Amino acid sequence: MRLTIEKLVYGGSGLARTDKGVIFVPRTAPGDVVEAEITEQKKDYATARLVKVLEPSSDRQQPFCPNYQTAGCCHWQHIRYDRQVDHKEAIIRESLERIGHLGWTGPIKRILGPDRNYRLRATFQVVNGRVGFAMEKTNDVVPITECASLVPELNDFIPYANSILERGITEVHAVSGPAIAANFVFEDGHVKRILRGDSPVFQVDGTQYRLSADSFFQPNRFLLVPLINEVISQVGPSAKHVLELYAGTGFFSLPLARISTEVISVEENNKAVRYGRENVQMNKVSNLRFVVGDVIATLKAADSRPDVVVLDPPRAGCGVIGAQQIARLKPRRIVYVSCNPSTFAREARTFVSAGYELKQVTLIDQFPNTYHSEMVGQFDRVVA
């Protein structure tokens, strides 16, 4: 089929409209005229494989990483970076309107960094004694020697990891700070931990964090301080009692404690909480308390009245029930850090229905050359 790509959608594909319905084509750009082959037909849409670009969009560029072709990494590396960000903003606006029923016409602030060598964390699969990446939408593993997105320390770690791989290792999880903390995971679940470097402590603008390959840490080295600063800015200078949800090891908790009277951080992962409490002691913070527990169950049982709630849930979001429980506490402000515009829009609709107004939206491009994006949104309670 000959198709003209109209726009990009969340998930990375380009969208084309035909008299037979909508067709999604990966590895395309708005303005492309392409030859494509239908690979899957659904009732109201189809997906297709790009066969040939007949007329390239002005958005296109030559992909610069060899893994783009072999492993399918970086879904948008064929698109100029400035245009990637435009398309991400368009997806956020469309999600807020289509899913959240919110016609956001205000500005969307952009916080950007370099689009190469930014990733501090990586998960490698193992095949034939070498680390690699799983090919997109398959279980096939492609060995790699370097990745354009990884920080230099992780690229240097790849040959070292290959040199110490043992029989039975299926995955390697690594984080750089710039010391490398890595977990070599065996097929029976056994984990061999490696520290390559001087210190397992990561410094971010004067705050210290324990480095661990099995705990989540923000991925983009260039945007760690800007992300913290944006959350602090949206929380505002008058926060007293802050409730943080999905707190992890305290990436936001520790800076929040410096501007607040009290911070209570809720995290369901026991290991993350243990590291978070170690971070509290290491930074000599006295007004921050970690609570272990399921976030929604903790919210349902809560009788506290925080004036600000900060949440940074996984890609699935906090859910409508979670958003309702947050609104039930009646904080004057909610600051939502999200890595999924669809779930952000869904929960934004719940907050607005509960008496909140969306005041500002910031796009933080944590994942250049992919369709993923991070957002920070501020919701203020409307007082009659």
What can you see in these coordinates?
There is one protein chain. By secondary structure, the protein is of the alpha/beta class. The chain has helices at residues 67-70, 81-98, 152-164, 224-235, 253-259, 270-282, 295-301, 319-328, 341-353; strands spanning 2-4, 7-8, 14-18, 21-25, 33-41, 45-55, 108-111, 121-127, 130-134, 141-143, 169-176, 180-186, 191-196, 201-204, 207-210, 241-245, 262-267, 288-292, 308-311, 333-338, 356-364, 374-381. Strands 7-21-22-20-19-16-17-18 form an eight-stranded mixed beta sheet, sandwiched between helices. A six-stranded mixed beta sheet has the order 1-5-6-4-3-2, with no helix packed on it. The chain has a six-stranded antiparallel beta sheet with strand order 10-9-8-11-12-13, covered by helices on one side. Strand 9 (130-134) and strand 10 form a beta hairpin. The longest helix has 18 residues, at 81-98.
SSE layout:
Blueprint: E1 2-4, E2 7-8, E3 14-18, E4 21-25, E5 33-41, E6 45-55, H1 67-70, H2 81-98, E7 108-111, E8 121-127, E9 130-134, E10 141-143, H3 152-164, E11 169-176, E12 180-186, E13 191-196, E14 201-204, E15 207-210, H4 224-235, E16 241-245, H5 253-259, E17 262-267, H6 270-282, E18 288-292, H7 295-301, E19 308-311, H8 319-328, E20 333-338, H9 341-353, E21 356-364, E22 374-381
Parallel strand pairs: 4-6, 7-21, 16-17, 16-19, 17-18, 19-20
Antiparallel strand pairs: 1-5, 2-3, 3-4, 5-6, 8-9, 8-11, 9-10, 11-12, 12-13, 14-15, 20-22, 21-22
Helix pairs in contact: 2-9, 7-8, 8-9
Compact description:
This protein has about 375 residues and is of the alpha/beta class.
